[in-house]
Design a protein that fits this description.
The protein has 359 residues and is an alpha/beta fold. The chain has helices spanning 3-8, 12-15, 29-45, 49-70, 83-93, 110-123, 185-188, 214-219, 255-269, 273-293, 314-323, 347-357; strands at 17-18, 77-80, 101-105, 126-130, 143-149, 170-173, 192-196, 208-212, 306-310, 326-327, 329-330, 336-340. The strands form three sheets. The chain has a seven-stranded mixed sheet, with helices on both faces. Helix 3 (29-45) runs antiparallel to helix 9 (255-269). The protein binds pyridoxal-5'-phosphate (PLP). The site of pyridoxal-5'-phosphate (PLP) has 14 residues, from helix 5 and helix 6.
Length: 359
């Protein structure tokens, strides 16, 4: 499939310059259709054992597909409902207490910060924030975990490669990573990687993934156990946890959600991940250059798919842009608007944004 054909699969792109995948990706029509088909089957056939078989088959397929994207084994990957769920479960399950420190950066999303605040409030763990670029050098004697973005949500900066060398566990928040740029959890040297299905993978809300290395899995306690997390759920009070990452799965992912996510992935795969990543990064770099040419300050960024740029009235300008058919977001508390550029976008989307901005 070529890029114009990919673009034609997204109804929203016929109406607006949708540059907001960092919030929620555009939904392809075929993913909506796949969800509708599952619901129709459920309506017609009811939901008995065959339905549960179907759910587990779809779950197995999605786990394989996500694991392929992260470069890990399916047994090392849990299916979650969002990035934050994977982060929260990992941080809450680690045996940390007073005297221990979690090192993080000063540009993290609330989806990660919530888990750190809970560790501080409930268990007396200290949290230290440092600039993302310096985080690997700041690991200290009390640091028990490094938790930070793989790709920062504010402006698309990336975690330093030196994190692969630190000798404490590293948890990467991949909400702006997986689907946007190539990810290989082994090359990144992380012990945990939490990602979203609804952003750069164009899946439905309520999808996500958590990679946990076998060694970190042994340290993370699972306090919330639902029956899908059990190896032998019929063993009553003797039931044991799944041995692989399924112990961290979200309790109930519906067939329609799973089918929708799989159909979206299938579409993106049909242009090839390497080509999709390259196109999105190239378009984002082009947008950054055109904005700078027109005198808009562009926030420091890396070779990613996010482009943040200065705005005097970010909220107001975002609303004005939306009225003119350009969907971007503002970053709360900072003087930036953020455009998210995907392989489904084209030069016309960028031109529309630039034309609207210069009015
Ligand atoms: C860097 C980052 N982390 C976490 C989140 C939260 O993602 P989710 O809704 O998948 O939990 C976001 C959402 O925008 C994000 O940008």
């Amino acid at each position: 499939m070529d890029f114009p054909a990919l673009r034609a699969e997204f109804p929203v792109l016929r109406r607006v310059a949708y540059l907001n995948a960092g919030t929620d990706g555009p939904l392809p029509a075929r993913a909506v259709e796949a969800a509708a088909q599952e619901l129709e089957r459920e309506a017609q056939e009811g939901r008995s054992s065959a339905h549960f078989g179907r759910r587990s088959e779809l779950g197995r397929d999605l786990r394989r597909a996500y694991a392929g994207l992260l470069g890990c084994e399916p047994g090392d990957l849990a299916l979650t409902s969002c990035t934050s769920e994977g982060i929260a479960g990992t941080v809450a399950g680690l045996p940390l207490g007073p005297g221990d420190e979690i090192l993080t950066s000063d540009e993290e999303h609330p989806g990660l910060l919530g888990a750190l605040v809970a560790a501080r409030e409930l268990r007396g763990v200290s949290i230290r924030e440092v600039p993302l670029a310096r985080i690997a050098d700041e690991v200290g004697a009390r640091t028990r975990l490094v938790a930070c973005a793989h790709v920062g949500w504010v402006s698309g900066s990336t975690a330093p490669a030196e994190l692969a060398e630190v000798d404490v566990p590293v948890l990467l928040d991949g909400a702006q990573g997986v689907g946007a740029i190539a990810v290989d959890v082994h090359a990144l040297g992380c012990d945990a990687y939490a990602g979203a299905g609804q952003k750069w993978l164009c899946g439905p809300d309520g999808t996500g993934m958590l990679y946990l290395s076998a060694s970190l899995r042994e340290q993370v306690q699972v306090s919330r156990r639902c029956f899908g997390n059990l190896l032998d759920p019929d063993a009553g009070l003797q039931a044991r946890l799944q041995e692989d990452a399924r112990r961290f799965d979200s309790p109930s992912l519906s067939a329609e959600t799973l089918a929708c996510a799989l159909a979206a992935l299938g579409l993106l795969e049909s242009v090839g991940w390497a080509a999709a990543h390259r196109r999105a990064r190239d378009l984002a770099a082009r947008l950054a250059a055109l904005l700078a040419e027109r005198g808009r300050e562009v926030a420091p960024r890396a070779d990613t798919t996010l482009v943040s740029f200065a705005s005097r009235e970010p909220e107001q300008e975002r609303a004005q842009l939306a009225e003119s058919g350009c969907i971007v977001r503002n970053i709360p508390g900072r003087p930036w608007l953020r455009a998210s550029v995907g392989a489904w976008n084209d030069e016309a989307d960028l031109d529309r944004l630039l034309a609207t901005l210069s009015r």
